[in-house]
Amino acid sequence: MKDQIPVKNVTPVKVHKPANADKGQRYASRSRIYVRAVKGPLETFRRFFGFFFLALFAVIPWLRYEGRQAVLLDIMEQRFTLFGLTLWPQDLTLLAYILIVSAFALFFVTTFAGRVWCGFMCPQTTWTYIYVWLEKKIEGSRNKRIKLDQRPMDADKFWRKTLKQTAWVAVALVTSLTFVGYFTPIGPLFIDFFTFNTSFAAAFWVLFFAACTYGNAGYMREIMCTHICPYARFQSAMFDKDTFTVAYDAKRGEKRGPRSRKLSYEEVKEKGMGDCIDCNLCVQVCPTGIDIRNGLQYECINCGACVDACNGVMDKMNYPKGLISFTSEQQLEGGKTKIIRPKLVGYFVVLMVMIGLLTANILLRVPLEVDIIRDRNSLYRETNDGLIENVYTLKILNKSQETQTYNIAITGLPDYRFIGETSVTVAGGEVFSNPVSVATDAYNLEETVTDIRFRVSTTEADGDKVVVDEPTKFLYR
After folding, report:
1. How far apart, in whole angstroms, are the C-alpha atoms of residue 62 and residue 81?
2. What domains are defined for the chain?
3. Which of 73, 96, 180, 234 lies deepest, with the highest CB count within 10 Å?
4. Strand ranges of the sheet holding 465-475, from the earlier edge strand across to the other edge
């Protein structure tokens, strides 16, 4: 055979390995990651972004609107209150639209800027940072924490560890109480919990979510990102060569290695060395413990900590910044990043359409639900006056938050007699059951089944008239 398969010479890159890898323990438990503190514009922005949403999370359940908790997702009562809007199980289409909008917003942002949700907004990232910050304040910097864990237990180590655990538990408990406060009135929840008067269900969920927060942010940390969260697995389906991700410029950085700070940038290049001084700071500041110099990895959450760390080193060495940066594969290969591209435009169009449908559903939503239940004992009956009578039960659901008076009428049936309340008052968010009967002369009925409608109407405080026509059947013979 004369045809030969061309062989490409591949130079292996330097791979960052766990501490136990050199000892032949390929499947040993993970090495603990001691995250080093980093300062820089990206880290400052990330903290602000995370704490902004953290503040929203903490404040929203305490807000009041017209004398009630503004946001209350009452699962037991099957009623979600969002300021002036009350949602019921019948409004699940709105929830579906909200979830679809959230999904396509995530797809759009990920296609454009990679896993910025994970790095800047994810609750796991935010709470992990809080726990690491507490750890740093109590036990010291990264090197001090490593030495503290290596030395035997003494008085200093004992009180530091105890204080840290106490702080972690306190944060977990406050977080859990706030979260459960979205589903039950938050004021009584805090009072009842700390006075030991809360119900078993509320206490169970508070302790359950506190344990989850404590375990996830205190110990599991990067395991949530690398092994449990499904988003890390399917993110690559949304990436393309123009997606902005945290990346290392290997062409500029290699050949890496330490060097004297006295050497000028030009002298370093003359010696054939790259800009990377192999300080490993990018690894030490990474919350998932990866080496970004090995290329794009599913563990990377695009937090940008390595960008700030590397730029700080480049400043000290008087080298140009951007050895590690938010860039695209296209740009690393010497091309130009295409911002507007079919996939991104497609996600944006679908996102706008779904936002429009969600908005339309909210604006066109009728704050009244009417359900008609026929009497199951008899299809019809004849009264003493010789009239044909059908019995119904009207379920009137006031989906607004104000008390409303509803007028009830019948359409589609001539010369009828209505027996029951024709005007009912229903409190906001309540269901009113109104048993009624409708009777008419048999001479008015041309068929055995007549289509009729119950018309329920009201006039709201702002003058808008709300009318619901609910169809049903009038039976004879």
Report:
1. 13
2. 34-87+122-220 (no CATH), 368-475 (2.60.40.10)
3. 180
4. 423-426, 404-411, 449-459, 465-475
